[in-house]
Amino acid sequence: MKTIQNYLPPDAASLRRLQERLGYSDAQMTELAGLDDATPWSSYVGGPQPRTLGRQRLIAMAARLALDEAAWQRVLAAMRDAGARFDYGAPAAAPTPAAPAPSPEEESKFGMRLVSDHGAFHEMEQLREFAHFANEFGVSELVRAARYDSGADLCRFTLDTAQAQDPVRRDRVFDAAFKTITRFEFDGRVYQGGIPPESDG
User: Fold this and answer.
1) What is the model's pTM?
2) Burial (Cβ within 10 Å: 0-12, 13-18, ≥19) of residue 66
3) Is the dihedral of CA 167, 128, 111, 144 positive or negative?
4) Cβ-based neighbours of 87, under 8 Å, separated by 6 or more
5) 169, 163 contact by CB (below 8 A)
6) Which residues in 24-137 belong to E strands, given as ranges?
7) For the segment 114-145, what is each residue's pLDDT rounded down to a tens digit?
8) pLDDT for 152-166, tens place per residue?
9) Residues 6+ apart with CB under 8 A from 104
10) 27: exposed, middle or buried (Cβ count in 10 Å: 0-12, 13-18, 19+)
11) Which residues contact 174 (CB under 8 A, 6 or more apart)?
């Protein structure tokens, strides 16, 4: 029987591209990959040392994406035939109190609007550091806002349209972001910055 040999896992950038192509949230990718709170999807696509995706987990993900529902049900049936026991589908609704929605945090620094959608401490710290460097590099007036999309774990910038035409000044904004922001979007591309994420817990 043929088997997969010399497996090299996809790197973090490839997994992020897959997520962006699917348009899935981190929670949806966590479900697709069969992960849990102890090893969330974000640990595979971010941070200084992202986890690697094992062959079996990737096979299961690829099968779920490639197979139609009938074929997927045959895979589940084969698993049960092999002796496995499991539940499949949406978990039964239990009357649990709704968790409070994360509240955004916003402040202004050097004339820039800094926003974390979920008010995460490490996101606000990175935004403050970014504002400090942008001011030091003389481009704080070019940045109208820096917003951390907490769901996507991605920082986006709103630049002053008139001043953004200067490529040298845009480069200084990029340099400030690269020094301080873990993951950010600039000119339509996603970059990994220099500060590792910290836990809020």
Assistant:
1) 0.49
2) exposed
3) positive
4) none
5) yes
6) 105-109, 112-116
7) 999 988 888 999 999 999 999 999 999 999 99
8) 889 999 998 877 788
9) 115, 116, 117, 118, 119
10) exposed
11) 186
